[in-house]
Structures are given as C-alpha cells and as structure tokens.
Write a structure and sequence with these properties.
Distance between the termini of chain A: 36 Å
Order of helices and strands of chain B: EEEEEEEEEEE
Shape of chain B: globular
Strand content of chain A: over 45%
Number of strands of chain A: 11
Oligomer: heterodimer
Helix content of chain B: under 10%
Chain lengths: ~110, ~110
C-alpha cells in the first residue's frame, strides 16, 4: 500500500499564478483533509471532505478551492497564488467512526510563492 | 484564545530524563484526543490516542482530564530518537474536524 500520496513535492509559483495540488489514498477511507503548516505552527485545516461528494470549509479556506474527484482523490486548487500562501501543505485521510480514528498524512508539498 | 494550546517549549533534556507535555482545549464538546509526532520536515504520525482512563505504551503515558479540559503526555527514560515535535490534536467528532496545537519541540541530548 502506498498510503497517502501527494504531488508535487515542491513548487515555486509567482504571485497570481494558479496550480492544483493532487492527493490520493489507497486505504478506502471516507474522509480526506487538506492542511497547511507555517513555520513554528501546528496544522490548520483548509478544507475537508467527510465523504465522496461532500466538501466543507475548515479554519483557513480563503484563496483555495477543493474537489473530491472520487473516493480516492482530493485536490486543492490555488486560483491566484499570493505570498501569504507560502507554506507546507499536507493531505490526510482517515476512516470514519466514533471515537475518531487516526489520520494518515501524505509527505507534504512545499510551496513557495514569490 | 486558541482552541488547543500547548506548552511552547522547546524542551532540552538529557538522555534518560522524564519529560511531560501539557495541552489544554477550550471546546467542551470535544470527543477524541491524540498525540502525534512530527519529525523535522516530515508528515505527522500518530503516537497515541488518549483515553479517559489514561493509557500507556511502553515509555509513553497519556492522560485526559475532561473536567479541566487538559491532556498530558509523559515520556520516561528519554532516548535520542525521541527528539521531535509533539502535536496535541483534539477532535469534535460531530463536525468531523481536528484542531491541532502548535506543537512542543523536544530535543534529547547525549
């Protein structure tokens, strides 16, 4: 099993450019998440998808859009990149249940916007 | 006030020391609690879940106090390999969302 995969691993954008970060999981998980992590800080939730066909905003959704393409794939799009979006982006997935199960994270995408 | 707050650290301890991390959360509806470990420039990985009765995994002990809305992690007999950032995570299961603390960095020195 590959677990959670993310592409690309690194990206440099100029202000105003757009890009899509890809995420896929092979664990048949229902829930998927996009987080950003700035230096010295914890992870902040951008968007999440509790199940295929649904998406909801997290703590910091402005400037981003998401698509839950199917159960495996959850993409994050920056329509017009800004320097404030320079960060490390992590995708995660988990099974649903109560109490909550652990989240499995991808290796991250390191994005720099100049 | 942040929803999840951790000791700011950093903690620098010698090998063999015992170290404790604390975490408080503000949402009384929170239902699930975790400690994740994050190595430098890597993704977070689950260290342990935290249960009301407290739980232990080898040198690691986690405790939850719902009345005080407080979570702790105790590491005994610290190893060099324990050097990492430890993230406190709180779930509001009804909302399906997790809130992460900013993390506490531990450096274990020879």
């Amino acid at each position: 099993n590959a677990g959670v995969t993310q592409t690309p691993k690194f990206q440099v954008l100029k202000t105003g450019q757009s890009m899509t970060l890809q995420c896929a999981q092979d664990m048949n998980h229902n829930s998927m998440y996009w987080y950003r992590q700035d230096p010295g800080m914890g992870l902040r939730l951008i968007y999440y998808s509790a199940s295929e066909g649904t998406t909801d905003k997290g703590e910091v959704p402005n400037g981003y859009n998401v698509s839950r393409l199917n159960k495996r794939e959850f993409s994050l799009r920056l329509e017009s990149a800004a320097p404030s979006q320079t960060s490390v982006y992590f995708c995660a997935s988990r099974d649903t249940g109560e109490p909550s199960y652990e989240q499995y994270f991808g290796p991250g995408t390191r994005l720099t916007v100049t | 006030r942040k929803e999840v707050e951790q000791d700011p650290g950093p903690f620098n301890v010698p090998e063999g020391a015992t170290v404790a991390f604390n975490c408080t959360y503000s949402n009384s509806a929170s239902q699930s609690f975790f400690w994740y470990r994050q190595d430098c420039r890597k993704e977070p990985k689950l260290l342990m879940s935290v249960y009301s009765s407290g739980n232990e995994d080898g040198r690691f002990t986690a405790q939850l106090n719902r009345a005080s809305q407080y979570i702790s992690l105790l590491i005994r007999d610290s190893k060099l390999s324990d050097s990492a950032t430890y993230l406190c995570v709180v779930d509001n299961t009804n909302a399906g969302k997790s809130t992460f603390g900013d993390g506490t960095t531990l450096t274990v020195k020879p």
